[in-house]
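Let's practice the habit of predicting before peeking. Look at the sequence and jot down your guess about where helices and strands might fall. Then scroll down.
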Amino acid sequence: MSFATKTSLPEERESVGLYVHIPFCEAKCTYCHFAIDPRRPDDARQDRYLRALMAEMEAAPASPADTLYFGGGTPSLFAAPRLARLVDLARARFSLSKDAEVTVEANPADLDAAGYRELRQAGVTRISLGVQSFDDGVLAEMGRRHSAADAMRAVESARAAGFDNVSIDLILGWPGEEAARWTRSLQGAAAIAPEHLSLYVLEVEGRTLLAHRARAGGLNLPEDDLVAELFGRTREELSALGLERYEISSFARPGFESRHNSKYWADTCFLGFGMSAHSYRGSRRWWNLETYGAYCRAVEERGPSAAVAGDRLVTPRERAQEALFTGMRRREGVDLEAFRTAHGVDVLGDYGRELERSFAAGLLERCGARLRLTERGVLVSNEVLQAFV
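Done guessing? Here is the structure:
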């Protein structure tokens, strides 16, 4: 197996994506495994974090960018004027284009109509709401601090403020899942009519309260067959609403696919800022310190470069494997000839034996010049893609 060294890599041709991690949360949800700071931040705590973020961004090598994503945590707990300063800095430092996609994740109960107007005036173009469920009982079990009615009001307020690009998140497969309950979430999504929807199948793992309960035998998790049936039904109903699946867990109306997340799946570079943020450029990946105090102290006492907790060089082989993993998440899959040109890898020739079982089971298909997951393969994608390890 050969791995070519290219003289023209994607990051030399394309604008980068910028990710800014806002860690603040009022509480940690039972399924959450992200790096957060679980308290409502006062002004002093927000200002300290803002100073560290701006120092890190100002020290980064200037590169043209066309997406900016505020993730978390709960970015809607970070005051809009502070977010506006970060947007302005991104425009100045990274020539963030006027038509850039600027996304802010928000909890449905955090902002009122004025709050959404402030975000719009700050240059935010896209709102991603962590709805998760339209069943108030499920929301309580998740540890969410909003209701289904809050989600409806949040979308109304965002629309009134001028947002024409609204995304919502839903979690499928919560303990006790049943068709009637999931129908309420689909009805809620239909009533909201978002431009984008992220559908996550619950994974009980890591250091979460939900995983602890599972280890103690206290969860009534749904059968895989039911989850698969509901996923298929959801795909059909979202398609009827005009939202087509373009990635394993992502559905969008035409033209409203997440431009920022698409960078991850297309093997293009991105720069991350803030605690626990990851970056990828050229053959290097690096990541930041994972706690609020460690991150802020490092930047304050030793400078922005001290925010980095570790890094590694990615070999051509690893880069090709990662590009296969992420590329196969997309509905269109991987263009085999383009992949050979970019990475020097004949996918079917080099991995053919490992893929035989997935082809035979109807989990993979060759569609013209592309290799892609079938709709059945989407639900077991992790197992299928292990062939590339």
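How did you do? The longest helix spans residues 43-59.
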